[in-house]
Design goal:
Length: 136
Amino acid sequence: MTALAGFAGGLAGTLWGGMVSAALLARRPELRAAGWRPDSGWRVLHTAALHGLCGAAAGLLFWLGWGLAAFTGTPWFVVGATYGVLLWFATALPALALLALRLPALRAAVVVMAVEALVATLSIGLLCAFVWHRAA
């Protein structure tokens, strides 16, 4: 169930990306000059599949970590938010920070993508913790 919850959390990241990130990125002229293209149907489908599969892997990792068992007596949403932020710090933040350091022209896009990744990882963490809490 946590893998399915992670998949659903990943899809929430796709939803954020399609509604918020795409609109913010479309308003940046330096990105159009760098070759940025608006989302197409296939790109959205591939993004959803990638977010979903990565979310399922994060859900499996949550399950393998026994739902962050060290947080006994902590509300499920605190456990989920902690897991989501830890995922973000371990996965998205290093890659995006290195990209921003190496390509200064893309810093605005990196900030938008970092927020998108944070929304996705928080969604994954909260849904995994909720499912874990409901099963306990």
